């Protein structure tokens, strides 16, 4: 892959306040682009971050044929740069592409595009505790055609932005039993815009009631717990770590997968199975729900302090240093910042 590089004339790095990094507001100097047409990828470029020029008839704007990924790069005190599980994200990107009738992207293009972009914008990767560079690869349909069919031309982009913590404290969530995020046979397992658009209205309503996020339930009967906003969910019930199985409606989360691997290594009893709303509520009432937390690239691990259900809030036990969520978070952070040996080949060092 031959990449044409056009660097920015004047960096915007002086706009970055390392003591007050807001998630997803300030973008790095450059972006990576590639075009797909006539059955092949071409026009690989790294250029200054700028707005795109699109036709008002662009297929993405009308029919939502778009996918994306989310991963992070970290910098330690020695200014070494680490990217976490880039291969897993590259594979998942193509799973989403297949479901949305979009062309697959060779994994080496995905990896090399990110690597070259980070080499140029490495000064944008913060090295303070709980900071990182968020990496957003995305693929959009370009055809200026108003008609429901897969497009023939596409644009792949990678943009990045320095970020701090997504949640600064344990979150308050509400079990959603009216609205549906995803259904069997749908696109819930894909990282496509449709999933997030469907979640906006009920999520905003929940936020008005004082909740940070929703716990989504199955779309058929609202009987089983699935995801929470941008995160997979874990429960610790009577000393057993439990999470829902993957399927049409649940994203194959990178952090989720990492935690299941770590749990096995730590000999933590865990179960991947359906979790009913009734089970969660009974475990709270019987004082055996010791912990609940969400996992995802943006938040890494977000402990849950309150679960709302049927117009009542239930407080969960306070998170301690010995809590599962804290143990997993420390291990993951130590691996990501190069403080612990990476025995799983999760880190790509630039």
How would you describe what is shown here?
This protein is α+β, with helices and mostly antiparallel strands. It has two domains: 4-164, D-amino Acid Aminotransferase, Chain A, domain 1 (2-Layer Sandwich), CATH 3.30.470.10; 171-336, D-amino Acid Aminotransferase, subunit A, domain 2 (D-amino Acid Aminotransferase, Chain A, domain 2). Helix content is 24%, strand content 29%. The chain has helices at residues 59-63, 86-99, 107-120, 193-208, 254-265, 277-285, 324-336, and strands spanning 4-5, 30-37, 40-48, 66-68, 71-75, 81-84, 132-141, 154-163, 171-176, 213-216, 227-228, 231-237, 240-243, 270-272, 289-296, 300-309, 312-315, 347-349. The strands form two sheets. Strands 1, 2, 3, 4, 5, 6, 7, 8 and 18 form a nine-stranded mixed beta sheet that branches. Strands 9, 10, 11, 12, 13, 14, 15, 16 and 17 form a nine-stranded mixed beta sheet that branches. Strand 16 and strand 17 form a beta hairpin. The chain is globular. The two termini are 18 Å apart.
């Amino acid at each position: 892959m031959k990449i044409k590089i056009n660097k920015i004339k004047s960096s915007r790095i002086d706009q970055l306040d390392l003591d007050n990094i807001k998630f997803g507001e300030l973008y790095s100097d450059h972006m990576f682009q590639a075009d797909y047409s006539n059955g092949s990828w071409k026009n690989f470029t790294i250029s200054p971050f700028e707005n795109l020029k699109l036709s008002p008839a662009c297929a993405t704007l009308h029919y939502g044929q778009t996918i994306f990924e989310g991963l992070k790069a970290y910098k330690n005190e020695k200014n070494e740069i680490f990217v976490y599980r880039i291969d897993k994200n590259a594979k998942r990107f193509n799973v989403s592409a297949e479901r949305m009738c979009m062309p697959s992207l060779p994994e080496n293009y995905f990896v090399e595009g990110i690597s070259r972009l980070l080499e140029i914008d490495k000064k944008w990767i913060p090295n303070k505790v709980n900071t990182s560079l968020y990496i957003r690869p995305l693929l959009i349909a370009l055809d200026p055609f108003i008609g429901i069919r897969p497009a023939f031309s596409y644009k792949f982009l990678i943009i990045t932005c320095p970020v701090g913590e997504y949640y600064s404290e344990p979150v308050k969530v509400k079990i959603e039993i009216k609205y549906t995020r995803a259904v069997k046979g749908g696109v819930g397992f894909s990282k496509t815009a449709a999933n997030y658009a469907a979640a906006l209205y009920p999520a905003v309503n929940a936020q008005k009631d004082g909740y940070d996020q929703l716990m989504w339930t199955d779309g058929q009967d609202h009987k089983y717990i699935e995801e929470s906003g941008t995160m997979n969910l874990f429960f610790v019930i009577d000393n057993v770590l439990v999470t829902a199985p993957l399927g049409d409606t649940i994203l194959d989360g990178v952090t989720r997968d990492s935690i299941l691997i770590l749990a096995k290594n730590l000999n933590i009893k865990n179960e991947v199975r359906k979790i009913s709303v009734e089970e969660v509520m009974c475990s709270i009432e019987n004082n055996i729900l010791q912990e609940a937390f969400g996992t995802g690239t943006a938040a890494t691990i977000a402990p849950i302090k309150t679960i709302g259900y049927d117009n009542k809030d239930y407080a969960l036990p306070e998170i301690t240093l010995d809590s599962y969520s804290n143990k997993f978070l420390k291990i993951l952070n130590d691996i990501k910042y190069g403080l612990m040996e990476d025995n799983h080949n999760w880190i790509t060092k630039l």
